[in-house]
Amino acid sequence: MYEVQISRQFEVGFVGDTFDTIFQFIEELQIIKNTLYSKPPKLLVSSNWNPQLPGILKLYNNRKFDFWGISLYNTEGFSDLFEIYKENSKKPLIISNFGAVDWVSGKGIDEEVQAKNLLSQWNAITNYSDICLGGIVTEVK
User: Fold this and answer.
1) In this predicted model, which residue has the larger pLDDT, 57 or 74?
2) In this structure, are residues 23 and 43 in contact, taking their beta carbons and an 8 Å threshold?
3) With 133 labelled, which of 24, 88, 97, 120 sits at a CA distance of 20 to 30 A?
4) pLDDT at 15 over 50
5) At what angle do helices 53-60 and 19-36 cross, to 10 degrees?
6) Cross-strand bridge partners of residue 71
7) What Cα–Cα distance (Å) separates residue 44 from each residue in 4, 11, 79?
8) Cβ atoms 57, 107 nearer than 8 A
9) CATH number of the domain bearing residue 67
10) How many separate domains does the chain show?
11) Which pLDDT score is estimated for 77?
């Protein structure tokens, strides 16, 4: 699988100066990928969750890539992420990175609380298996 990551602040970088340029690059990458492989790997376009993301999902949903990926780190689960996603995209979703850092002042990470929160997040992913293909737990130190 190929992944193209849109930066956290929705800044554009070496690929171009607009989202149109970025998605034009992604379409060119698809052409190259399809030329190189008899069974081309899938292409994931991912980003951190951001209030601007629903509009971007809707605007670029018909472009030539296979999945959207969203990274989200918090201790409260995914709240309404999946419902917002369903309203704005028809592509399959992968939670490309998720985790919950539960720091207790003076004690460090509370692993029991962290495990509880990760289980809650994983259960949310499985509850939305109609749109979400899975997720990747990432530890942040």
Assistant:
1) 57
2) no
3) 24
4) no
5) 50
6) 48, 97
7) 6, 18, 23
8) no
9) 3.20.20.80
10) 1
11) 65
